[in-house]
Write a structure and sequence with these properties.
- Strands 3-2-1-4-16 form a five-stranded parallel sheet, sandwiched between helices. A five-stranded parallel sheet has the order 6-14-7-8-9. Strands 10, 11, 12 and 13 form a four-stranded antiparallel sheet that branches.
- It has helices at residues 6-9, 20-23, 36-43, 53-57, 64-72, 76-83, 90-96, 100-104, 116-130, 153-164, 181-184, 193-205, 222-228, 257-268, 292-303, 339-342, 414-418, 445-448, 455-459, 478-482; strands at residues 145-149, 168-172, 209-211, 231-234, 240-241, 254-256, 284-288, 308-312, 346-348, 351-358, 364-376, 383-387, 393-396, 399-402, 406-408, 440-442.
- α10 (153-164) links the parallel β1 (145-149) and β2 (168-172).
- It is globular, with a radius of gyration of 23 Å.
- The chain has 484 residues and is an alpha/beta fold.
- α3 crosses α9 (116-130) and α14 crosses α15 (292-303).
- The structure holds flavin-adenine dinucleotide.
- The site of flavin-adenine dinucleotide has 41 residues, from α10, α14, α15, α18 and α20.
């Protein structure tokens, strides 16, 4: 351990974001580049505590105290080698992981945690600059052929691991380019697509094949894939969005968040010649859903110069500090203000949506809402809400994005055709990642689901089923979890 008293002398400092007015003019990454010296100083805050909770807080089990120490000692190559023992793609997690490791950092007990995510990003970017990141070196080929269906972070991680084990891997992707939600969900200001391309190019150099525009179960028969491969890994994600079935849903101007984000991302990537079909310049926008997807809609709408943006959430406004029910090292259910929120947006909590209002031509022009109050029902012990009398209002709007999460994977196609068994939430049921078919495996959101947990029911000490109309607090550690 480099400096046992580092945390007493140095305060936490994150990487500086670009000025809001400047960054709103483009879709480039929000954070400014930083220096090795700055990051090494931050790494010296790591206490190398006896039981590193950061390590168990990280879904990948990253060896955090070890790489922090190497960075502090200016041993960047050693830090890189430690980091990649557990993490296939630190350049993704170093940018977009919500960092449960930092929530679990022991320093967080009475101080601010170590900036672990930034350190991770700096280690991998340093490694790329130095040329240390090389295609996989495969010593022995197994002679087995594996098909990976879906190229999101789960499919990419699976392909990378199988390639390292000497298998011949082909990744099938129905979209034009690989990356899944890394490419078509998450906007460039959080993750520039050159970062995804750089990794995919490296994987191709390692011998992994990518077949895009291949919608398995539709364009290509799953039986053909089965006949041609020894095993299949399903990594198709959780793609069926939660809808809001209230009156007026059919109004022109009501969209799922992903329809908006995907089109915008394709446009920024040069994949669309004209402005995307859903564009919000000078429009009054409402985003329904207070999670990451909602925040990404806010950031994108601001860059498209929307007239106004309001984000509404069913749950009540979280506290700024941990409460009695989410003590360290649990994930804190606190108010989160993302860089997209900082760029401008009205946020409202404890709001129930009642009706989309449309004009005679069917165009959306308002959203009827009612204020609600949350309380624990003394009879059932469940967190529930009541509508506040006389609080109904109509918010003017031209566009609404529904960002209320995802229900489960698409069943029509591969899952139906193969007869894959599902769990009680509609995700692929597995044991040790193996489905009911011995040659078919599953990983990522298709297996684990889009992790939505009720903040309130967690506070009440239980997990309850979601109702169609409720929006849930999301624990956003999914990219790293999806790699599992
Ligand atoms: C807008 C948005 C923002 C997010 N931001 C964050 C964040 O900041 N941090 C974080 O940790 N998590 C975030 N998440 C969650 C994270 O992106 C997902 O948990 C993760 O991408 C899931 O990975 P996956 O590989 O399982 O699935 P996906 O990324 O969904 O990839 C599945 C892929 O499979 C392909 N596919 C599906 N069916 C077929 C088929 N039949 N044939 C061929 N291909 C098929 C799809 O086209 C897709 O490319 C965000 C999610 C969204 C929607």
């Amino acid at each position: 351990m480099g400096d046992p008293k580092g945390f007493l002398k140095i305060s936490r400092e994150g990487i500086e974001p670009r000025n809001v007015l400047e960054r709103l003019k483009d879709y480039k990454e929000i954070y400014k580049p930083t220096t090795e010296k700055f990051v090494a100083k931050q790494a010296s805050r790591c206490m190398d505590c006896g039981v590193p909770f950061c390590n168990s807080g990280c879904p990948l089990g990253n060896l955090i105290p070890e790489f922090n120490d190497a960075v502090h000692m200016d041993e960047w190559q050693k830090a890189y080698e430690i980091l990649i023992q557990t993490n296939n793609f630190p350049e993704f997690t170093g940018r977009i992981c919500p960092a449960p490791c930092e929530a679990a950092c022991v320093l967080g007990l009475n101080n601010l945690p170590v900036t672990i995510e930034n350190i991770e990003k700096q280690i991998i970017e340093h490694a790329f600059t130095e040329g240390w990141v090389k295609p996989n070196n495969i010593s022995e080929e197994s002679g087995k052929k594996i098909a990976v269906i879906g190229s999101g972070p789960a499919g990419l991680a699976v392909a990378d691991q199988l390639n390292k084990a000497g298998h011949q891997v082909t990744v099938f992707e129905r979209n034009e380019k690989p990356g899944g939600l890394l490419r078509y969900g998450i906007p460039d200001f959080k993750l520039e697509k050159s970062v995804v391309d750089r990794r995919v190019d490296l994987m191709k150099s390692s011998g992994i094949s990518f077949r895009c525009n291949a919608n398995i179960g539709f364009d290509i028969d799953i039986a053909e894939i089965e006949a041609d491969h020894d095993a299949i890994v399903l990594c198709g994600g959780s793609t069926i969005p939660r809808d809001l079935n209230i009156p007026g849903r059919e109004a022109t101007g009501v969209h799922f968040a992903m329809d908006f984000l995907e089109k915008s991302n394709k446009y920024i990537d040069g994949g669309l010649q004209q402005l995307p079909a859903i564009h919000v310049k000078d429009k009054k926008v409402i985003v329904i859903g207070g999670g990451d997807t909602g925040a990404d809609c806010v950031g994108t709408a601001n860059r498209q110069c929307a007239a106004s943006i309001t984000q509404i959430e069913l749950l009540s406004k979280p506290d700024l500090q941990r409460g009695d029910n989410d003590p360290w090292p649990l994930w804190p259910m606190i108010l989160r203000t993302s860089t997209s929120h900082e760029e401008g947006c009205q946020r409202e909590w404890s709001i129930q949506t009642k009706k989309f209002i449309k004009n005679e031509s069917g165009m959306l022009n308002g959203l009827e809402i009612v204020k609600i109050e949350w309380a624990i029902d003394s009879k059932t012990g469940r967190y529930d809400f009541i509508e506040i009398a006389d609080s109904t209002t109509i918010i003017d709007c031209d566009v609404v994005f529904i960002a209320a999460g995802f229900l489960h994977p698409q069943k029509v196609g591969i899952l139906d055709q193969l007869g894959i068994e599902l769990d009680n939430r509609g995700n692929v049921a597995t044991q040790n990642y193996q489905t009911n078919l011995s040659h078919v495996f599953a990983a990522g959101d298709i297996r684990r689901g889009n992790l939505w947990l009720s903040g309130r029911s967690m506070k009440a000490g239980k997990q309850q089923e979601q109702s169609t109309n409720s929006l849930w607090v999301k624990l956003n550690w999914k990219v790293s979890m999806s790699m599992l």
